[in-house]
Predict the 3D structure of the following.
Amino acid sequence: MAVKEKTRIVFTFDEQSLAGLEEIKDDGNYACFAETVRDSLQITRSLQKLAKRGYSEIIVRDPETEEERLLIIPTIQAVSQKRR
């Protein structure tokens, strides 16, 4: 069985970005920052793949009230617009 190589990366965050990362880690019950970033990258990559196929909007729905919200993520919209 092959052993996965690991690469160490150092990030520098301003206070606000670090606080946001800590909040995501805590709210998501992630064990560490690396796990938090890994999951965030997977979500972003999935959204980029959909955007490349032409999807441009993300709609979330409250299951109790059926209220919907449109999420605007400029970088995902940019990927979608490149396709056009």
Remarks:
- DSSP finds three helices and two strands in the chain.
- Residues 3 and 40 are 24 Å apart (CA to CA).
- The two ends are 43 Å apart (CA to CA).
- The chain has a mean pLDDT of 91.
